[in-house]
Amino acid sequence: MNKKTEPSTGEKIEGTLNFVGDSIAQAATRVHELHRAISDMPFKAVGAATLNASKPVESIHNEITDLVYGAVREAGKGVFSGAAWVVRQANQSLASPQIIDQAMGGELMDQVDHLPMPTAPNAKTDKRVSAISSAINGVFGDHLTATRNPMQVRMNLYANGQALAADQASLMAQFPNAKNHLIVFVHGLCCNEDSWQMYYNPSEPATRPYGDKLQDEFPVTSIYLRYNTGRNIDANARQFKRLLNKLVRNWPVAVEGITLVGHSMGGLVSRAVVEALTDDDIILKRAIRDVVCLGSPHAGAPLARLAAAGEQLFGKFELSKPIGKVLGVRSRGIRDLKDGLGALQAQGGQEVMFHLIGSTIGDHTSSWLNTTVGDGLVTPDSALADDTGRAQRVTFAQKHHMTLLNDPDVFLELRMVLRQHLRQKQLN
């Protein structure tokens, strides 16, 4: 669906090297600040006692430490930036020894000549690179986007492991048996479309992904969204809405229904899409009928609130300010999880049915676990937050947050949602 192609594995490696260089520079800066905060304490005390007689010593100390940390910062960044340059040149020339020789001044040619020829990346390698990239994007995705790092995840729709084409002719070739009901799965923080295959065991049919099993039982087509979870939830929702509009317009058959299934942050992004629909989105307003949120922190996530509180607390004291800055290196996406989107609110003229599914690692009687730990990341109160009184809500016991991605009980709920929708369509 997206005109921009997904970066190659080589480009992602280049982006990773640049990112590591930036990270080293940031880490050196934070350590430098911590060192300065510690050293300032005795200098200030001595200065007050000696009428600032210690100022020359302090100036020399600061100048030396500034030079040392500056050298560490620039050297660290320079080494990885240089490595990224080598990778970029190698990408552009199919990793020819001549380019590496040019980059390194010939000093590594003896070793290069004896290295075995590298094999082409395979599907398994690409999946690992994508998983690592998605995890890093969850924490630093806004920075990667702002710096146009090749490692940034670009939003796109996928099916059967392939990115969806943007035009109708290609979609017709890609989906010769396209159905008029779409189920779009939206992953959570630091994940990608492959997360829906978690816990899948080929020898156990019951563990097949939700999308595959639902396609077996109902006339539906399953599609998966990949997106940069480090970006702001609203920004992702707006872009997702544009992708859905384009998909519906170019789908091989007329789309009569869309079910959005979001895990964790994915539920918030799906909900934000619905809440952002306007009169210009008349096709989507007619098509989207159900949104299923699996362990989504509508009222916020405890860990995100803890990180925000820690940043604020450490930032109050001179000595701990650098630590507060480290906690502050969190993406916009993670910051959005602090308060979530709030409890569901009634939408005027909106007929979408929300299905809120939460879980807890304890049993139904473990009130302490339910209210403080929940599924390990989200409490049931947050996952089921609804001020409309209309949402269908279910809580499962003895299931953790990631279990919701592939679980027999959750599948039964998804199957019920589709049965309700299809039955209602038949009645109409």
TrEMBL record:
SUPFAM superfamilies: alpha/beta-Hydrolases. InterPro entries: AB_hydrolase_fold, PGAP1-ab_dom-like. Pfam families: PGAP1. Residues 183-304 form the GPI inositol-deacylase PGAP1-like alpha/beta domain. PANTHER family: SLL1969 PROTEIN. This is GPI inositol-deacylase. It comes from Limnobacter parvus.
